[in-house]
Amino acid sequence: MTLKTFHFAGVASMNITLGVPRIKEIINASKLINGPIINAPLVANHNERSARIVKARLEKTYLGDVTSVIEEMYSNDSMYLGIHIDMETVQRLQLEVTLDSIKWSIINAPKLKITADQIQIIPRKNRIRVYVDTNLADGEKVLPFYQKLMFLRRVLPGVVIKGLPKAGRTVINKNSKNEYELLVEGYGLLDVMTTDGVVGTHTMPNHIMEAQSVLGIEAARNCIIKEISYTMDSHGLKVDPRHMMLLGDIMCYKGEVLGITRFGIAKMKDSVLMLASFEKTTDHLFDAALYSKRDAIEGVSECIIMGNPANDIGTSAACLVSEVPKLPPRRKVLFY
């Protein structure tokens, strides 16, 4: 297994963490991972145009992507920015936006503080005018109007006009069944599942903690098994599925995803010797002596440390299915 691999199989433009770093992310139950990807199957999975329409609903699109020109206009009593919207680009990207929706995206953008009175729509020319507010409130610092205009010109191209807030780039992929699906970079599983055109019941992320928060602990367990299996198969390694199922059960049997770290193991079991055998040995032993903790020596690790046989391990449900054949009575030997 390679130490670092960042490539999504079958899609050259998508980067995903594989190898040892990916196994480490899964086992440690990391809250933030490198390359979170949501696999979103489509309702119309044989139509490329429908896939592009759904992609436009998910992928984050900025005002600068559909703007051809931004002009500075000055007059005796006002100044404004003239934004030319390229409708051909809007149609080519299959964006479901209008001039009015772009206006409200600008109004709702944080830190701009633009009101509806400052925006004028000119439908015939596909233009939007954003006026600079020349009125100052009491106690407000005086900022030259030209600097306000330059601030708007710098910030407006970065206003999000379409797409999910936590989702990044979206790629259309054709899977092994010759069906179209979407690969969404970023987070926001619940928003992706509820988007029109996406089969929400089959949408699955590669982020285990997000699967737990949205779909529950059983989905997180299945995600752990699936991601470890995918990572191993990507490097040509065959692992018995029972080992991966056991790992998923151990990480999820408490009702939450617990990583195989000293913090996760501390929540799993209270055995002092088992915690000391993992990490920070002296700290656990000193704390146990200070607080007079007791260890029943029941687990495998504790029994090995103390040199005792591991008792009460397993289900003790083994039994013989068939009867043991009886041996014939021994004959006396006539000659020695």
TrEMBL record:
- Keyword Transferase, does the record have it? no
Against InterPro entries, the record matches this protein to:
RNA_pol_Rpb1_5, RNAP_III_Rpc1_C, RPC1
Keywords attached to this entry: Magnesium, Metal-binding, Zinc
- Which family, according to UniProt? Belongs to the RNA polymerase beta' chain family.
Give the Enzyme Commission number: 2.7.7.6
Q: Matching Gene3D superfamilies, A to Z?
A: 1.10.150.390
Q: Which organism is it from?
A: Puccinia graminis f. sp. tritici
| Entry GO MF terms | DNA binding; DNA-directed RNA polymerase activity; metal ion binding
The record's listing under SUPFAM superfamilies reads: beta and beta-prime subunits of DNA dependent RNA-polymerase
Q: Which GO terms describe its biological process?
A: DNA-templated transcription
Instruction: Indicate whether Lipid metabolism appears among the record's keywords.
Output: no
The record, for Pfam families, names: RNA_pol_Rpb1_5
Protein name per Swiss-Prot or TrEMBL: DNA-directed RNA polymerase
The record places domain RNA polymerase Rpb1 at 1-271
